[in-house]
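hey can u check if this looks right to u? its 217 residues, i copy pasted from the old doc so theres a chance i mangled smth
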Amino acid sequence: MIPRYQRFLFAILLLASLAMGVALWQLRERAHQRLIAGQDSAPTSAPEVAPAEQATLLVANDEDSSLTAQVHSLPLPADPGSRGRAVLGKLLDLYAAADATHPVPGGGSSVTQVFLLPAPELGAGAHSPAPAGDPQQGPQLAVVDLTAGFAASHPSGIETETLTVLSICGTLHANLPRVTQVRFLVDGQPRPTLAGHADLTRTYLAGDAAPSEGTQP
């Protein structure tokens, strides 16, 4: 015969087990409800992606010191500054590729920002007027902010540095026709040269970057 105190102890343990089971079931239900609430609040649609458009890049070639217009399809944001950064990013990605005609390390991440400002007067004969058919909006100055790493790793030499600068200027103008002048910063600060030769203290005119004949796909 089971002693009375053992029956009493067994009943207490059984009640404690039942209480713990109920508590665990309640905790499980609460966790499940929080999970459902989190799923309901999560976005159900994919983030908006900029549509692909045709962009013209002025690609440098070291063999003949030329700039060739190439057409590429890539997503381009509506904002002009972001659009400028996107096309320059693609240009520098081409230069960072293994088969580049103008090898420059860094790639698209070397362009931090492209700022667009009203273009100032540059004196008689140097000012570029607003594009024809757009009399309500004047020309723009693009300020291209490059990374210090890009400048530090850029091959040194007047010809190769000038090709990089001119290809950037021409690519911006080809995709943002209102950009008639370009200036450069490195990590947000003025810099005397790109890699010891190309002057980054001056304002470049888009007209300085003339592509060679023909356009490549």
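Residues 7-36 form one domain.
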